[in-house]
Amino acid sequence: GYKNIILDEKDGILTITINRPKVLNALNTDTLNELENVVRDIERDKEIMVVIITGSGEKSFVAGADIAEMKSLNIHEGRNMTRLGQCVFQEIENLSRPVIAAVNGYALGGGCELAMACDIRIASEKAKFGQPEVGLGIIPGYGGTQRLPRLIGKGRAKYYIFTTDMITAEEAFNMGLIDKVVPHGKLYEETLKIAEKIISKGPIAVRMAKYAVNNGMNMDLASGIAYEAEAYTTSFGSEDRIEGMSAFLEKRKADFKDE
Ligand code: HXC
Q: What InterPro entries does the record point to (predicted)?
């Protein structure tokens, strides 16, 4: 039983809904701790193939860290808070299963940072992104100063962090911050379709592709290429490789076993 998170598991898809609608799903310490527990459980659960993260209500994905809680913290607690959020978001980024953010509204501060820690971002046309932290006298502390420039470039990242300007879904799509924009009422349905499509592919291959992209982004090109060869070889050694290639040649649907 979680207080601030709703879990829904169906057909290999785990949907995590951040559920504090009265404060637009702001992330307090309790919620981050709950999220960390959920993420750790996923790693041990063989049934879960794809994870979706979304926010409850019509208006907000996550409106950031909980400002009321943050205001009362001393500097040591402030450091613990940034480290906790950073750790949880890194665990999400490194999960062996793909994680899709279904951004249903405001993704501000820690909310934008949570979305950026996911593998893929699908947004409602009403979603709005931004890093408002400097307006509160702090800087983004859940990875925003690192992941935003990696997604949209250094100059743009500084522009949006310094000005705190909000970014519409359409703008976010055009600059590569998000990967698809869909009608508001169809967000979950469209996200499920994407999750189902991923599930139909070879799970070891998807996992190795995730590792190759994630780890390669932190390497020089030659090291990344070498890493790719090793991840490729792992996929090549799987039973699923034989199944995938046989299914193609036999003109049938592959039945992958994650082996
Ligand atoms: C705590 C929040 C909150 C937040 C909204 N609320 N965001 N409470 N922390 N991040 C609360 C409001 O206080 C209000 O409570 C209720 O949710 C509804 O919000 P409103 O402001 O009335 O709604 P609206 O006018 O529609 O404006 C929506 C909004 C605005 C534009 C999203 O709420 C907003 O600017 N929120 C703060 C966004 C922000 O600065 N996020 C970054 C946080 S810093 P009441 O009681 O009045 O109903 C951060 C740092 C991460 O994320 C790294 C830390 C280490």
A: ClpP/crotonase-like_dom_sf, Enoyl-CoA_hyd/isom_CS, Enoyl-CoA_hydra/iso, Enoyl-CoA_hydra_C
CB 105 less than 6 A from any atom of ligand 1: no
Are 210 and 180 within 8 A, CB to CB?
no
Name the maximum alpha-carbon separation found in the chain. Answer: 64
| CA 109 / ligand 1 centre spacing (Å) | 10
Q: And the tokens for 99?
A: 């994680």
Nearest to 107, CA basis, from 118, 98, 96: 118
d(CA 36, CA 147): 20
CA contacts within 13 A on the Cβ side of 217? 13
pLDDT beneath 70, residues of the chain: none
Residues 6+ apart with CB under 8 A from 152: 160, 175, 176, 177
Q: Whose CA is nearest to atom 38 of ligand 1?
A: 63
Contact 34, 84 (CB under 8 A): no
